[in-house]
Specification:
globular, 318 residues, two-stranded antiparallel sheet, alpha/beta, Spore Coat Polysaccharide Biosynthesis Protein SpsA, Chain A
Length: 318
């Protein structure tokens, strides 16, 4: 049984400057919840409750978020806000959460090495702290991965189909489909140019790794960007033993850039029971305006695209 998760959250978040100058990108709120809380809750829903977060300098807010705030609790109690008080306390009791600081930002592979003692000789799930994955089934992405791992007992990576024009953003796999949605990996290519891509199956921030990965990480030199790349270690591993990819049933909300962050906020707001009706009415009002400049808009095509995707009318629309 997989009970341990590692959440790397040590990057600088330069694509969100100046917002990330004083707060971690993993603490950027999607509506009213930090991205990293969505990730922790995904782990818990998959029955993984022993979690290590690998942080870096300037990431103290992550630790504080999952700790109790006695001052805030006292304030809410005095104001009679009991429901909000209970919600706040629940955050600090979500799971057994441990943190360790990566001494310098040296890549995803280096961050995972810091979890060696925590994971010991067990398989564990890696969940990137800046990526929300929405599931289309009763199991979330971590749950789907664990279910597949329990069957094949080999390292496995979650992937999704992405448009050709987006493959340069991600690591992409080359592999052979061995059963529906499961691929034996031959090679992983980090951020290929569209014409050089081995497939359109992009790695989407969830992995199940076995303890053997640490030996490969120890032998991995700094690669692209002068950092220790997990992709390089996995490529080395794939030459010696079987690793697989699983095309998860759902969609990624990549919070790593401004446009996708805005899209994700709209899509998730349209699913919130307390917001969706009024928010949908607002979006439709904006789309129906004869003069969209009333809301400072010169073009409503992006909102129209997001609304169609939420209704499931055009899953290929960006």
């Amino acid at each position: 049984m997989i009970k341990k998760a590692v959440i790397p959250a040590a990057g600088y978040g330069t694509r969100f400057l100046p917002a990330t100058k004083a707060q971690p990108k993993e603490m950027m709120p999607v509506i009213d919840t930090p991205v990293i809380q969505y990730v922790v809750e995904e782990a818990l829903q998959a029955n993984v409750d022993d979690i290590m977060i690998v942080t870096g300098r300037g990431k103290r807010a992550i630790i504080d978020h999952f700790d109790r705030s006695m001052e805030m609790e006292y304030f809410l109690k005095e104001k009679g806000k009991t429901e909000l008080l209970e919600h706040l306390r629940n955050i600090s009791e979500l799971a057994d959460i441990y943190t360790i600081r990566q001494k310098q930002s040296n890549g995803l592979g280096d961050a995972i090495k810091y979890a060696r003692r925590h994971t010991a000789d067990e398989a564990f799930v890696v969940m990137l702290g800046d990526t929300i994955l929405e599931s289309f089934t009763d199991k979330n992405c971590a749950g789907q991965l664990i279910e597949t791992y329990n069957r094949i007992r080999r390292p496995i990576i979650a992937v999704e189909q992405v448009p050709t024009e987006k493959v340069h953003r991600y690591g992409v796999i080359k592999g052979k489909e061995v059963e529906p949605g499961v691929y034996l990996i031959e090679e992983l290519v980090e951020k290929p140019r569209p014409e050089e891509r081995p497939s359109n199956l992009a790695i989407c921030g969830r992995y199940i790794l076995t303890p053997e990965i640490f030996g490969y990480l120890d032998k991995t030199a700094c690669g692209k960007g002068g950092e220790v790349q997990l992709t390089d270690a996995l490529n080395m591993m794939a030459k010696n033993e079987q690793i697989f990819a699983y095309q998860f049933k759902g969609r990624r909300h990549d919070i790593g850039n401004r446009l996708d962050y805005l899209k994700s906020t709209v899509l998730l707001a349209l699913q919130r029971p307390d917001l969706k009706d009024e928010f949908r009415a607002f979006v439709q009002e904006v789309l129906s305006l004869d003069d969209p400049r009333r809301y400072g808009l010169c073009d409503t095509r992006l909102l129209d695209s997001i609304l169609k995707k939420d209704r499931g009318e055009d899953e290929s629309t960006d």
